[in-house]
Amino acid sequence: MFTKILIANRGEIACRVAATAKRLGVKTVAVYSDADAQAKHVAVCDEAVHIGGSAPKDSYLRWERIIDAAKATGAQAIHPGYGFLSENEDFAKACADAGLVFIGPPASAINAMGLKAESKRLMEQAQVPLVPGYHGADQDPALLQREADRIGYPVLIKASAGGGGKGMRAVDKAEDFAAALDSCKREAINSFGDDAVLVEKYVQRPRHIEIQVFGDTHGNCVYLFERDCSVQRRHQKVLEEAPAPGMTPELRARMGEAAVAAAKAVNYVGAGTVEFIVEQPGGYDAPEQMKFYFMEMNTRLQVEHPVTEAITGLDLVEWQLRVASGEPLPLKQEDLRIHGHAIEARICAENPDNNFLPATGALNVYALPDCVTFERGAVRVDSGVRQGDAISPFYDSMVAKLIVHGDTREQALARLDEALAQTHIVGLATNVQFLRRVARTDAFASAKLDTALIPREQAVLFHQEPVGLPLAAAAAVAQALLNERASEGVDPFSRRDGFHTHGVVQRRFEFEFGGEHAKALLTYERGGGLHLKVGEGDAAVAGPLVFGAAPQGAIELQFAGQRARAAVYAQGEVDHVFTPLGATQITAIDLLAHSGESAAEGGRLTAPMPGKVVSFAVKAGDAVTKGQPLAVMEAMKMEHTIAAPADGVVQELLYAPGDQVAEGAELLKLVAAEKA
Ligand code: ADP
Ligand code: ADP
Ligand code: MG
């Protein structure tokens, strides 16, 4: 085993690799760009080397610098993670030339599988089933069109060098082929510097099922079963699970053996994934009719490898390190078993409601699931960031992966839902609530899987507002009251007896919610209870408000027939409310801060909230100008200045400093300038 390795990556995968290295007593060297100087992966490694600017081409893709860093720190091997240099055969060769071990397959295997078209030709020879298609070297557009016509529409044009869901065009009819080909080639040359394409049958309602394989330098190769990655958006994986629902032992063995044959055909060593597209001609409930075709082989550790780890109980990074250091595979095929079911959700900084636009910003709140509510190992979070970190525009939008395991798929699904509900991220848009909705669709819950699940279910996946105004407002009010109690020791209003002269004290709240203005009225009842009315007129929802503090700063809430545990995080005036139903935002309008405007209504200067008059800045007869401070009030341990809403003359002060005033009490009489 190595004593020190360099991790040529960042984010969650760099942290993931470092965790196993640490467990095995292997020292780690991180590399980092300008943007990542304070990143988590730098913090978790034993040493770190700065390798350049923030853009990947200036740092994580500069392999000479990475190799220099490995030599300078005495690392014996380089783990490339996924993405970046992981499938770069020149880098693999350069490592070998520098006397370093590349923790991955031989450069020749990367090369053989690097281009989709060439790898398909190889697989054809190895008798691995292929999607009917054309993957020849001749790229004459007329020939490609003829091939597409022969295959029959719809067809898929794929950039041979493509990856990450890019460089693909589905074509429904012959007339559209030429234009789609042009656009695919343009994207391919821009993204991959190579415009060669292949054409294949567009499989209808397919599933994406991939097989994890592992080879060693002693000629052994095994498969670690399958992962179903059918839930995708724009050909990119969103949820992944293992084993694949509906998989039969017979089909598993056939697919596993085909994947091993594919790996052996290129003398594969290390972790690899053979991706298959699976046709379900008999529909979702007829797995015996499923037909699988080779799509591509990813010659690296895959993002979704943790679901395989969860069901096999193995550490694939440990296997990678053992194999790279020359050890044989720890287990034989017949020793491998599947335990239970695992699901992974990719948590990304993006806005699903805005076409999955990536989001950047700071992770002001980054609260992850409370893993102790589950038995050990049932919930795992692989995260590359910490609270307070920023998501920069330079890299992938994936910030973390949530992996759950259960005895059955149902149990795993329930844990996923709960874990996602406990994932509270504030500061930028994420897909957390979207992931919950996807996992809750009947289609996913009943494992009616295919790659069009998300587009088909879009009506319930996008632009959803599961938390209504009443619950959001109740959570915001409860949080405000809890904050007051925390800062004063007791509820300030229970001490201000003067407010109880009419039996009750009322307090006004105003909110912005879903683009609408909303009012709420809180009544402190004589018996100590609270009554809340949210909204006005016929739309008003009213009833007792009952709440109490729950663990981790959450609130147990009961209002208007709803009972929920809510977590409220204030960011300026915006309260981010997380409940088991979903998450929402509500903006609390600070009535005291805006009192100048609101009190001006009707020409009266009224106290917007119950509180104490601290001082008057004016006396009767003073001429004042708009915006000039008139009085200072104190409420909730804060002083608030009440300003003149318009030019005018002070006629009379109605209270003295030290007086307690109720909400709505008129503080002074001001005669506006034109009337004076
Ligand atoms: P998976 O490992 O599950 O197949 P992805 O397809 O999303 O995951 O790819 C893993 C990572 O590698 C992602 O960060 C993706 O952006 C990147 N990636 C994959 N293929 C390419 C490619 N050909 N060029 C650039 N980046 C790629
Ligand atoms: P990438 O390199 O971007 O991962 P793949 O060739 O692996 O590209 O395909 C990515 C996804 O595109 C698959 O998971 C599947 O959803 C879809 N796809 C690929 N080939 C086909 C096909 N022939 N028919 C239908 N969908 C396909
Ligand atoms: Mg793929």
From TrEMBL:
Q: Could you tell me the superkingdom of the organism this chain comes from?
A: Bacteria
Transmembrane segment boundaries: none
Under the heading InterPro entries, the entry gives:
ATP-grasp (IPR011761), BC-like_N (IPR005481), Biotin_BS (IPR001882), Biotin_carboxylase_complex (IPR050856), Biotin_carboxylation_dom (IPR011764), Biotin_COase_C (IPR005482), Biotin_lipoyl (IPR000089), CPAse_ATP-bd (IPR005479)
Lipoprotein recorded as keyword: no
Domain Biotin carboxylation, by residue range, is 1-459
Q: Which PROSITE patterns match?
A: ATP_GRASP, BC, BIOTIN, BIOTINYL_LIPOYL, CPSASE_1, CPSASE_2
Q: Which cofactor does the UniProt annotation name?
A: biotin
Keywords annotated in UniProt: ATP-binding, Biotin, Ligase, Nucleotide-binding, Transit peptide
UniProt-recorded name of the protein: Carbamoyl-phosphate synthase L chain ATP-binding
**Species this chain originates from:** Acidovorax delafieldii 2AN
